[in-house]
Write a structure and sequence with these properties.
The structure is a homohexamer of 314-residue chains.
Chain A (H helix, E strand, L loop, with lengths): L2 E7 L4 H10 L7 E5 L5 E5 L6 E6 L6 H17 L4 E6 L18 H12 L3 E5 L14 E4 L2 H9 L7 E5 L5 H11 L3 E8 L5 E7 L6 E9 L3 H12 L5 E8 L5 H7 L4 E5 L13 E4 L2 H13 L10
Parallel strand pairs in A: 1-4, 4-5, 5-6, 6-7, 8-9, 8-11, 11-12, 12-13, 13-14
Antiparallel strand pairs in A: 2-3, 9-10
Helix pairs in contact in A: 1-8
Chain lengths: 314, 314, 314, 314, 314, 314
């Protein structure tokens, strides 16, 4: 139906984009990014995209503002170059965490970014494991929202002793996500009941559920500094947990998160490549599953008009 | 700043609107609703609203489509009659439950309704206890989102023996709400870990947390048929719970929900009047707290430009 | 050009939709409508519609608000499921009667509904015999506006004695429609000159034109309770009319309209199936002409890009 | 509430604007219109309009395209000069005649112009006697739609022998307007039943209603060339009419319309000044009633937020 | 990809449109323009355009308002007749001269017109030599902006003695355009340094650059009355210039511009046919280069999705 | 008219904002900017802004993407906190340089940013010395566009020997700006005629105008690396210029621009504080004029509805 599919990368995920292009047996299309002396970004699309079905891959990873602006400017250039359809492929939509107004006079930035993407020319969005599924509704265009939960569950299922595991949520807000993950693996859950004592003090009042003698998988959508996880690991250890696995879809891993978690005794860290993790950062005890096959299949189906909902259980 | 504040009711909450008007020491403004012989709705505003600051109260209660259409048509009439600003006051926004895409090819109707409200002329929204706080971000206009949690917690705090209570969430998805409620009361939580065995069978695999000898408050945003609650009550009884209180902000109470819950041994049902509950349905063991003072104060502050965030802790 | 045409029914016209699908030699596509316990409507499209050219049939018949909301929610689901184009097929657009501001502070609801349809995702509209042709201009998207006038005129033309007939408009506002219908049949018209004496009293000051010894066809766009028609029948009888036929495109027929009209001596009632008329309501003296062939041909032409204006004389 | 009201004229109605300003005891605000050598129009507002409540008077009279463009450019200049609110005062909205699609592939230009006005910055519209009342619904902003019917009826009511008059519509499409006018005067109506024999031939098949020995008022929304009226006058004379008055709200009077009508024996032509009629064109037998007091009162009420619907019976 | 390309002319450039159609080996598609007696414009498209890829040619030449309105109404008719895509081909976009706010409270009309085109249904624009390249950014849709500079430069390059030429800008604002033209020809530039002495007096304080004994080409985007050029010619003559050529893309040539320029001793006037120049106005010393091949090639590439940027050096 | 004026700074210009607040005798309003561990920006407005007239100061200086995102998120927070009007005060709108499409498939980013500002909630813009005046037309909201040219001209006028000065533009594109500046000082201009020999080589083919024995002011809208200026300084020196002053409104001064320029022998660098220049960077030979009084006066007038055009000659 659509003429030629084209795939571009706006800078955040070169390896993932390349892997997707490989699965699709396509050449990644070239663009030129430069910077004027006043720090303005300049983007030039280096191939004709008239009437083409264009997919632009960009995660909102550090530096987030830069990556976002590069995506917006690239989309504007694509649109004005007469691309027929532009799909923003955003494996990690970090601002999804700003999804509600839990303090006065703040911005629900996940909605703002959705609107900015539309203003800049996005016709549709392909994303993965949004912090809350409601963020889907922030977009005024069609969204395909995939999950890597099954991919990660499959990985753990193959481990010996997976029957003796328990999934742990680091607070009540993560109970639902942990519950769905636990159900996929058919194992129980436990939840840390974190209480805020005052504006400045947080305490973990205890653990709901049983972890004694069990291997725990602390599961979340993203891991950044790992501070909350460190607290949870202590709580689990005190409660008699055996091994502690950490897993998340989005491996933000800011600062010295990985060394600290390893020091604290994590058994293994299992994440995906929605956030780019350069080779030198891929340390021991760290497993990076690739979402490239999932994204590639979704892109193929979007392009040809085949069903996605029937394939991916999100 | 704004000329005269006017308050209208589009049919769903006559008693609440009247109570709000009383608090504000205003006369409720009149409108005429009729129906043509082809079932079309007709609305006429019976007072001049030019340049007025208008508040239109309507909950999306049964019959929901009728109530929604009446609100949309009334807003269109107000706008075309040159109201300066129209605030949709929606104490119970029932479609907030359709807030994500948990099956293929469904509508995130909570977003659709938000867009329809804007199309029909709403300039802002005042609502209460949305099913998930993310629904706030579905609106492209300013929203004031109040909560009745404090009101309900205050009620329970005054009960003798409130120190021995535990808040129960009926599934992992409600853990966060229950947790915040429990924190307000400074008591523990317990969670029912409900598992879906297949597309047609659901089982409750157990209870996480301790309820033995405790008075339980099953707390949710809304109670409709009460089926899930009935299951939870059985689970709690088996687990040695003493009294079981039920509480929710929105008392939808469809069909014979209340008799069935009373029969099942509930101690008391505590709800608010965001959903209209006629006098004849206000039975024994049922406490209806009024949100009129909260809404009235919010309306007053919206009208005068005073801060709301500083007063209401949402 | 477009991939596969798909046709859905949102509930109001199952028989008509089925007849259209038959003419087009298509299977009607399935969707599932259900209702949550809080009365919210839920719609799921049960077939892949990505990049498909979708036609959704729904008349705004009783219960109008329900039928409208079902159409809006279904369109939202179709759009978010990536349908390439959505045509709202609305055989009877009842709110077209709310097309002007003939009282202060009312809503021109025909325009509001047009805007709501756009908000919910309609790309174009296919409709029939709008109350006034100006309603076409309320839509900000392409509209194909068909008429069943020719279909009905053909029916009467074949009756013996059709040369001795006269078309009657029940008031001055219907004179133009009656005039066009009369011209198609090449017969004269007569008009009831209805005068409003005060806000509460209406009188019919007389009949303009000659009906003595003639067979009359009272012709309108829709018949609901039939009260006005009953008055007109009396006026015609007094003026010496012979037989009285009643005809309208949209047979709303609310309450006991048909029995009352039959009792009053109508010769025959001729309508179409733009409003669903279940078998048990299709009584003697009542002829229901089907618009399915017209709508099917229009749908085929919209899908293939053939001219409609050249075929249908509207 | 609003700062200073300002009134501008975009060129079509200098006398009317001046009369409105007089009633309002305001100075008309100045602007400069010029033309570049490439025929581009240039408009400069010559007074500060920041935060002012601006009314811009312009009828869409000959040359229509010029007058429209001047209005659009002036509104754009006003908006960009930070006017707080811009009301387009359009006494004669000539394109209202293009209000439906009565031939294939034409534009419903009355809707297009409404959208252009919005694009150029109009916040609201004040207009008079639209060709059909449905045109009101073409605007997506508040419209105040006045009528001069009462003004004209009052004029005729004061004539001796007004009880012996009959209102005549030149075709079935005008029956409703004539009917409302007749009702105001409490006199009967008659209608010319014009039939189109083929695409090129039109015949008037006769007159419905009685005019013998009566003084007729041929009443329409506008009179342009007067050709149809000339035909109607012949029909009326043949049917025994006595005097023939002509009346319309909008006196377009193109070409030699007035001399031809006078020659044909019209008793008097009664119109208003919604279309500018220079002194030299105001001949004998021609009465021009001014709508300035109506428009001025409406402007005053729009500015102060007083009700208009309660005063003007439209 | 797209069905059948269709090309229409809205009245301003019949010869150019016909030449474009010839290059593309297409029949120009017919439309009917007429005028009602109230001066309203009426347009009917006389061919089916459903799903067609339509190009509408119209320059904003005298009478500008008429030509613009005809284009807007034609586009509205095309859109409502279900054209798949409408490209506004505007060889001369005269309002581009109103591109900035160089006086208080004026309209940046070039932006307004861009917005009006969008409102009326334009999906894209194809234009030539905008007064300033920034005007491209006024459009919120894709624009292909061609230049005839190369065409004109080629013409001069072939003249004997072109090596001894100098390009002259009539003021500092034209220096950049003249500079680019000079660079194409690889010859020097000179600039008239025009100073405004007061609001009413302008003086030319002198010439920057050397023209003594040289053949000058006064080059601009458009020539209207030629008054500025006449001044410049005097300045050049005083400075010892030999021959003086005049050249511009857009030959507006209002009033008696050409005779005056010829009288003043211009050697030759070289323009293009973006502005229609009827045969009788094509005098001696006047060369009209046709842009039809450029526009035709661009239209072909837009239709097929081939690159334009790679071909045309704008 | 408007309640309380409030002024916020989004981070780029703390000193300028503070100076503006001082002139207006206001306290600058507080906001809190923080960063989540995934690099997301978080903004909280720390004062009630309901119904307030808010001015948010932010220049698009290095790091541009960060500063832009902070402005967008802050505006979203202000809007959702019910600010009555938000004016984006952007002293230096750096992306104005991306104002045209001078290469294929690039973004006219100055337009994109204008649209993003609108999406995020800006109601109006106050800016200074846009790279080209046409950029004003990129905004779809009212813009007040001030210039610091007069401020700088006043500074030079007071220098001894200012009568012997000449203004130099570094290329033809800057001729117009230099011309206006020269006219204010009533001195001549000279222009460097820079030619591009090929895609990679640029040469300066010479100087148009006379600088021998004169003091030159190289004048531009912004100075970043200063490379072009260095070339121009050489050209001027070769041509016999005496002192060389450098001046620009926006002192971007990236890298070691200032030392290099000083080394090259500039007499003095005169800029303004539209770009924040910390105390330690304010070296000898460098004069920073403050635009705070201009911006403060404009803000005051915007707030009170007084004319700006009449005061500032832009």
């Amino acid at each position: 139906m659509k003429k030629e599919l084209k795939i571009f990368c706006a800078g955040s995920n070169p390896a993932l984009t390349s892997a997707i292009a490989d699965v699709l047996q396509l050449e990644q299309s070239p663009l030129k990014m430069s910077r004027f002396s006043n720090d303005n970004i300049s983007v030039q699309i280096l191939e004709n995209v008239r009437e083409r079905d264009v997919f632009l891959v960009q995660s909102l990873t550090t530096p987030v503002s830069e990556h976002l602006m590069k995506m917006l400017i690239t989309m504007d250039a694509l649109r004005s170059a007469s691309a027929r359809r532009i799909t923003a492929v955003i494996p990690y939509y970090s601002y999804a965490r700003s999804d509600k107004k839990d303090a006065p006079r703040i911005s629900i930035t996940a909605r703002l970014i959705a609107d900015l993407l539309k203003t800049a020319g996005a016709d549709r969005v392909l994303t993965m494991d949004l912090h809350s599924p409601q963020v889907h509704g922030f977009f005024s265009m069609p969204v395909d929202h995939l999950t890597a939960t099954v991919l990660i569950a499959d990985y753990f299922r193959k481990k010996p002793g997976s029957g003796n595991m328990v999934v742990v949520a680091t607070d009540a807000g993560g109970a639902k996500r942990a519950g769905r993950f636990a159900q996929t693996l058919n194992i129980p859950i436990a939840i840390v009941d974190k209480r805020r004592l005052s504006d400045t003090e947080v305490t973990q009042s205890g653990l709901i559920g049983n972890v004694k003698g069990k291997d725990c998988i602390i599961f979340d959508d993203e891991i950044a500094t790992g501070s909350t996880i460190l607290e949870t690991m202590k709580t689990l250890s005190s409660a008699g947990a055996r091994k502690i696995y950490l897993s998340a879809v989005h491996g933000v891993l800011s600062g010295d998160a990985v060394p600290r978690l390893r020091e604290a005794g994590m058994e293994e860290l299992v994440i995906t490549d929605t956030v780019d993790i350069p080779e030198e950062k891929r340390l021991k005890n760290m497993t990076v599953l690739s979402v490239a096959p999932l994204l590639a299949e979704a892109i193929r189906r979007i392009h040809t008009g085949e069903s996605i909902g029937e394939i991916f259980p999100h």
